[in-house]
Design goal:
By secondary structure, this protein is α+β, with helices and mostly antiparallel strands. It contains six helices and 32 strands. The protein has a nine-stranded mixed β-sheet with strand order 2-16-15-31-32-17-18-21-30, with no helix packed on it. The longest helix is centred in the first third of the chain and has 24 residues, at about 85-110. The radius of gyration is 22 Å and the shape is globular. Residues about 1-50 and about 115-120 have low confidence and may be disordered. This is Peptidase A1 domain-containing protein. GO terms for molecular function: peptidase activity. It comes from Rhododendron griersonianum. It holds the Pfam family TAXi_N.
Length: about 475
């Protein structure tokens, strides 16, 4: 009987995350690396669990902190898992999506805040697990620092695509509530303006340039996230999509917006900080809330911007301890062109997309270095490679550093990926006046976003993303 109760309790919670205490001294155990145990993680009985709730009326009334383990596409837990795909095929797919995302991101920003209806493509390599509604229904979401909306497919569906797990049925949730069109919950706080449906309820629409879209209502609902020590039930505004099309075949079940905006998940719970880290074995987690975020290491500035994106104060790139000496406008966030310049950290970018002038200068330096070493150059799609049987740790490879204000980040093996006998540069040329730093260059690095003081904390971790 006790076993049946435990199984039922885990199913109702729907989401198993691992709470990490705020003090660095207390992080010796780190977070779990065995994501195959996420659904089978044992919880204390309900009476022993502390709970926290966040209200839409006053998101700052309770400090909400929780952890969301990152589930990789190679895990059988992922809704995108395909045992027929190799790790190399998955990587190339996400590099391709990353390139599309970079292009669409520029186009969306160039149209101006509040006017663009276009959203940016999402890579599928990481998802998080949470529950929605009453009773809680388990689903997966793609965490995205480039989105300000939490949305998912909903029943009853006018037009939907297949997904794993089953779509959320709004009619079966006792806590589901539509938002009136003239409510401040509809008219304020979103990056893009909402519209009204025929029944005067708040309506959203997101479109992708490949023809995919999601349309539906903005509604109030309860999101549940759980850990071994606490359960958070969060009142959220989210997009419930009743009319959706996915032409690319990527079939996202949900998107969890993590922009620094009022209506993203972070803004709705009043989170003053968050952090994330993943290692080169694809383990990791997102830590949300100032009591949970890992604000460690050295810090640099986050620059304010109207979209709530994570723009950093970036100065230059070094190759073998010599800077490229790029003009300030190459990496600067220009006041005259604030939406299409600067350097951003983006959870949805698989690799770094570098301003074309900086990339050309970087490539020239690397080619000269490799020629001196007698290494032959080749191409792997849009990536540049050199014959290097010694692998990504070979000391003959040039040393690359990203130079921020107040710190320089040595990329080491994060600059390269081995393809058989070749080492390939994991930085690509971006044909716009914008640089997007991708996840590959940030493996085994904890990024802590202090949203209250607009600081980015950077700390190099051990290989398993633990201190």
């Amino acid at each position: 009987m006790a076993i049946k109760f435990l199984i039922y309790f885990i199913y109702i919670l729907g989401v198993a995350t691992l709470m990490v205490p705020p003090s660095r001294a207390n992080h010796s155990t780190g977070f779990s690396r065995d994501f195959s145990s996420i659904r089978s993680l044992a919880f204390s009985p309900p009476s022993a669990n502390k709970s926290a709730t966040s209200s839409l009326a006053d998101p700052s009334s309770v400090e909400i902190s929780f952890s969301l383990p990152l589930i990789h596409q190679t895990s059988p837990l992922s809704p995108f898992y395909d045992p027929k795909k190799t790790v190399g095929e998955i990587f190339l797919e996400n590099v391709q999506i990353s390139g599309e995302r970079a292009q669409y991101l520029y186009l969306r920003r160039a149209q101006g805040t509040g006017t663009s209806r276009f959203q940016i493509p999402l890579t599928r390599d990481f998802v998080v697990l949470y529950s929605i509604g009453t009773p809680p229904v388990e689903t997966f979401g793609v965490p995205d620092t480039g989105s300000d909306l939490v949305w998912l497919q909903c029943e009853p569906c006018q037009s939907c695509y297949e997904q794993t797990p089953l779509r959320f049925n709004s009619r079966e949730s006792s806590s589901y509530k539509l938002v009136d069109c003239d409510s401040s919950k509809c008219t304020t706080g979103f990056v893009n303006k909402m519209t009204c449906d025929d029944n005067d309820y708040c309506e959203y629409e997101v479109n992708y340039e490949d023809g995919s879209y999601s349309r539906g209502n903005i509604a109030e609902e309860i999101m549940t996230v759980a850990s071994t020590h606490s359960t958070s039930r969060i009142d959220v505004l989210f997009g419930c999509g009743f009319n959706n099309s996915e032409t690319s075949g990527r079939n996202y079940p949900s998107v969890v917006g993590l922009q620094n905006t009022k209506r993203s998940l972070l803004g709705q719970i009043g989170a003053k900080a968050f952090s994330y880290c993943h290692d080169d074995k694809n383990n990791g987690a997102i830590q949300i809330g100032k009591n949970n975020a890992r604000l460690w290491g050295r810090k640099t500035a986050l620059l304010p911007n109207s979209e709530g994106l994570y723009i950093v104060d970036f100065k230059d790139i070094m190759v073998n301890n010599k800077t490229l000496n790029m003009p300030s406008y190459v990496f600067g966030h220009e006041d005259d062109y604030p939406e299409t310049t600067g350097v951003m950290i983006d959870s949805g970018a698989a690799i770094t997309h570098l301003h074309f002038m900086a990339f050309d200068a970087l490539l020239t330096k690397i080619i000269a270095h490799m020629n001196n070493k007698g290494k032959r150059m080749s191409r792997w799609g849009d990536l540049y490679c050199w014959d290097n049987p010694g692998g990504v740790l070979d000391p003959s490879l040039p040393e690359i550093r990203f130079v921020f204000v107040d710190l320089a980040l040595r990329l080491g093996p994060n600059a390269w990926r081995q393809k058989e006998q070749d080492s390939c540069l994991m930085i690509t040329r971006y044909p716009h006046q914008l640089t997007i730093i991708g996840r590959y260059q940030l493996r085994n690095i904890n990024l802590g976003f202090d949203l209250e003081n607009m600081k980015l904390w950077i700390d190099i971790q051990k290989p398993d993303c633990r201190p």
